[in-house]
């Protein structure tokens, strides 16, 4: 299955360690289209060697191509919010992962009936357990 993983870049990189573990776990039996999100060397500046319109159009193409969107919303990110709204608009299945110790999830996500697979976790073991249960 092709999975679009969404996680914060310019919104802040403090959760990169968790993104990397999620991506590595999911990549064993699936294809993660957005592996760069778990790259430790990618800073809060993002993929600055690329034009913003290139990044946006590439990511929307990947989102459309994916079978499933998995988003970590713990670190608020405009880009992740945009991707989630886009996924809702085109009817893509979405699994949301949210570290309850880190932040309160936006009402725009929690308040949308479309997002009916929101999973709260408190550490990396728990997030991997959730993915194992849901995806395998
Ligand atoms: O360089 C980038 N590359 C990229 O793929 N993105 C996408 C993927 C992430 O799921 C999301 C992160 O958005 P933000 O940078 O606003 O936190 O946007 C975002 C940026 C920078 O905004």
TrEMBL record:
Protein name: Putative 2'-deoxynucleoside 5'-phosphate N-hydrolase 1
HAMAP family given in the database record: Nuc_phosphate_hydrolase (MF_03036)
Statement: the UniProt record of this protein carries the keyword Hydrolase: yes
EC numbers for this chain: 3.2.2.-
Reaction catalysed by this enzyme: a purine 2'-deoxyribonucleoside 5'-phosphate + H2O = a purine nucleobase + 2-deoxy-D-ribose 5-phosphate; a pyrimidine 2'-deoxyribonucleoside 5'-phosphate + H2O = a pyrimidine nucleobase + 2-deoxy-D-ribose 5-phosphate; 5-hydroxymethyl-dUMP + H2O = 5-hydroxymethyluracil + 2-deoxy-D-ribose 5-phosphate
Assembly, per entry: Monomer and homodimer.
Its biological purpose: Catalyzes the cleavage of the N-glycosidic bond of deoxyribonucleoside 5'-monophosphates to yield deoxyribose 5-phosphate and a purine or pyrimidine base.
InterPro entries recorded: 2'-dNMP_N-hydrolase (IPR051239), DNPH1 (IPR028607), Nucleoside_deoxyribTrfase (IPR007710)
